[in-house]
Amino acid sequence: MIFSVDRDVLLNQLLIVQKGLPSKTPLPILYAIKFEVNEDHMILTTSNTDVAIQVLVDDHTLSIKQAGKVAIPGRYLIEIMRKITSQRVEFALIEDKLIVIKADRSEFKLRLIDVEDYPDIDFLDLNDPVVLDSVLIKTIIKETNYATANTEKRPILTGVNFKYLDNHLYCVATDSYRLSQKNVKLRTHSKQFDIVIPNKSLDELSKILDTYNDDVELFINPNKVLFKMNKILFQTRLLEGTYPDTMRIIPVEFPVVIPFNKEELLAAVERVSLLSPRDRETNYNIIKMSLRPDRVVEMSSTNNEVGDALEEIIPSSDAVGPVIKIAFSSRYLVEALKSFSSSEVLIHFAGEVKPFVIKGNLDADLLHLILPVRID
Amino acid sequence: MIFSVDRDVLLNQLLIVQKGLPSKTPLPILYAIKFEVNEDHMILTTSNTDVAIQVLVDDHTLSIKQAGKVAIPGRYLIEIMRKITSQRVEFALIEDKLIVIKADRSEFKLRLIDVEDYPDIDFLDLNDPVVLDSVLIKTIIKETNYATANTEKRPILTGVNFKYLDNHLYCVATDSYRLSQKNVKLRTHSKQFDIVIPNKSLDELSKILDTYNDDVELFINPNKVLFKMNKILFQTRLLEGTYPDTMRIIPVEFPVVIPFNKEELLAAVERVSLLSPRDRETNYNIIKMSLRPDRVVEMSSTNNEVGDALEEIIPSSDAVGPVIKIAFSSRYLVEALKSFSSSEVLIHFAGEVKPFVIKGNLDADLLHLILPVRID
How far is A102 from chain B (nearest CA, A)? Predict the structure, then answer.
């Protein structure tokens, strides 16, 4: 196996498949990137327990002298490619045991594990795709993934539920303290599906989508979903089980609605959280928010050891409804606000001990919900 | 005590005294910043076991309504000031127990510890200064501090030795594996001194000097040194004991001298270190460097598990002397090279098992020395 390629081209592809390298595995071969070098292209593959990634390299700078297969230690290979400054790099396999990498006056020899030990990766058949725009997928991940659970208490909650029905895509994430829900009407028609994708996989997919702007084809079976992006295959396992019905926890009547400038609200929440004590269960800062009789919103926190903080915010237009007082984890509100593109947000209150809902003026299809905590 | 001041002005001064807050202390009052507010100025003080810092605030934006003294929890105060976006902040003391901080529509109340509990800080008398330029001090810290020891095996080596004699300032740092030495001729005359300043104190001083460009006055006694920068006092304890005589370990004859382009050498050392095994004692990567008969320099490393790396560098002009081969911790060379301003460096070799010396074309007064390790 002998080939040469532009360093930048190879590094970019390596940084994509890197996201499929395991951080820890009992199968050392998985620390390697599998190279399948054919006559006029090569295929790079990585996999771990969550995801498998494959990229096709057929760049015009790729010059293949001799085809072959090899599994190259991934971390070392990527570190070497990062530090190399020459334009081109050359790879040559020696006796199936060493790969020699040459770049200008640098030469690296890496010991190899037998490529035949690399497990077969079972990518789904490319039949009957669901087609989604890459920007839409990226936006949904940004808007929902933060609200997934990060403990394994209820494993199903560590993923985002994607449900497709009658031209609508319904996406929900919740850790049972807060929830994010995005409903999108799609122009294209597709078969029905209802899957839960692990949050870590979505994080990695989101990073890959940073450098990809085109349609993405989804292929789904009961255990896996494969995202096909032109020359990239990204496959992730799905979470097993039935996602809870979250619709019933979203209140339908909101006697109080308060409009805010998003940045102003965010800054005030962050300031008032500085001194606030932490919730026992979640370890997050608890703050109080109230609509006062003078129609000004007050946020406050009290910490017996440290002191008190108080913020007044004048709603960006008239608040609707009677006075109300509610307490919640400030971090939930901060994270919800940050996921909005909108400059104006509306907070809808159903009552002092009921979940409240945040919507944005420019994000009609997005809803965030936060459970309050009881105030003593 | 009541005063108001521009937020930016106060924050800048707080970020200076912050460097004197302890990370951990059995004396909780030291987590506070002491404010002494007088008729037309105020003084802020912090201290820990290593350093004490005092700044004078007499900015024209400072408006004092009522003088007084108070000790305000430092970390909370600084976090609040960072998050405040209003131009002005107002401080008022309530019954010696609470400080109220107002900024636009924000109000913070912080509980206080009795300011009378704040220990008296014994700053040295401002008599008989040694005057040094701030840029010189900053440069010396950058060039030497990295070479100090970071373990307490020999506590004296955790500081930089500053010795003044006959218009010359001699600065040395070593961790007994490598050494940095800077000798400067001063225009001004001063009394003789020979002190060792802890590396952590020098790090903090260096950060303060980032925003100060003027003469610095040094006041020295056997236990402490006080750096006076216009409105800032920075005092640090000195390390006790006699600094070792390092002159005798610097070789005087160098049969081999090789000139390098600094950036090229640095990049090659970093690449060849990627695979190299670690030295048992220091946990640093060991690499080999040799001058070959063809007058090309070769660097290499071998890792039985991972593989080999090889770099060739053509000296920037002709190398002097016979062929030589030497092994050393690559990190020592990387750190030494990074501390030079020079674009060209000369490596002077005294022999295969003797320390080698690095000098720069633009840093005549600076010398770095590295001890080799034995090659099997």
Answer: 10
Residue of B31, B78, B89, B108 to mutate, testing the A interface (most A Cβ within 10 Å of its Cβ): B108
Euclidean distance between CA atoms B195 and B224, whole angstroms = 9
Q: Model pTM?
A: 0.91
- Chain A residue with minimal CA distance to B98? A307
Euclidean distance between CA atoms A220 and A271, whole angstroms: 45
Task: Report the C-alpha gap between A290 and A296 in whole angstroms.
Answer: 8
Q: Helix (H, G, I), strand (E, B), or coil: what is residue A137?
A: helix
C-alpha distance from A198 to closest chain B C-alpha (Å): 33
Of residues B186 and B266, which shows the higher confidence score?
B266
The helix/strand/coil state of B257 is strand
pLDDT at A376: 62
Alpha carbons A113 and A115: distance in angstroms, whole number? 6
Q: How far is B116 from chain A (nearest CA, A)?
A: 19
Domain region containing A299: 250-370
Q: Which of A61, A90, A80 has its CA nearest to residue A18?
A: A80
Average pLDDT, chain A: 94
Average pLDDT over residues B217-243: 97
Query: What does the pLDDT look like over A63-112, one tens digit per residue?
Result: 999 999 999 999 999 999 999 999 999 999 999 899 999 999 999 999 99
What is the number of structural domains in chain A? 3
| Cβ of residue A111 closer than 8 Å to a chain B Cβ | yes
Q: B216 and B283: one domain?
A: no
Q: Do B262 and B363 lie in a common domain?
A: yes
CB-closest option in A76, A267, A307 to B306: A76
d(CA A4, CA A20): 24
Whether residue A76 and residue B307 make contact (CB cut-off 8 A), yes or no, is yes
Q: Which of A76, A267, A314 sits opposite B275 (nearest CB)?
A: A76
Going by pLDDT thresholds of 50, 70 and 90, the confidence category of residue A304 is confident
Q: Is residue A122, in this structure, part of any structural domain at all? A: no
pLDDT tens sequence across A13-60: 999 999 999 999 999 999 999 999 999 999 999 999 999 999 999 999
One domain, residues B166 and B137: yes
Q: Can you say whether the dihedral through the CA atoms of B239, B244, B246, B249 is positive or negative? A: negative
Chain B nearest C-alpha distance from A230 (Å): 33
Percent of chain B with pLDDT over 70: 98
Q: With an 8 Å Cβ cutoff, are B108 and A268 in contact?
A: no
Measure CA B118 to chain center: 28
Q: So what's the ipTM on this one? A: 0.87
Smallest CA-to-CA distance from A297 within A266, A329, A333, A258 is with A258
Q: Is some CB atom of chain B closer than 8 A to the CB atom of A305?
A: yes
Using an 8 Å CB-CB cutoff, list chain B residues near A109.
Answer: 307-309
Size of interface A-B (CB pairs under 8 A): 88
pLDDT of residue B194: 96
How far is the C-alpha of A52 from the C-alpha of A12, rounded, in Å? 17
Q: What percent of chain B has pLDDT over 90?
A: 89
Residues within 8 A of B (CB atoms), A 59-88 only:
73, 76, 79-80, 83-85
pLDDT > 90: percent of chain A: 89
Identify the CA nearest to A171 among candidates A243, A253, A242.
Answer: A243
Residues B265 and B363 grouped into a single domain: yes
**Summary mean pLDDT of chain B:** 94
Q: Hey, are the CB atoms on B76 and A306 less than 8 Å from each other? A: yes
Whether A188 and A148 share a structural domain: yes
**Nearest residue of chain A to residue B83 (CA atoms):** A271
Pair B287, B323: CB distance under 8 Å: no
User: DSSP states of A169-195 as a string?
Assistant: EEEEEE-SSEEEEEEEE-SS----EEE
A311 touches B at CB < 8 Å? yes
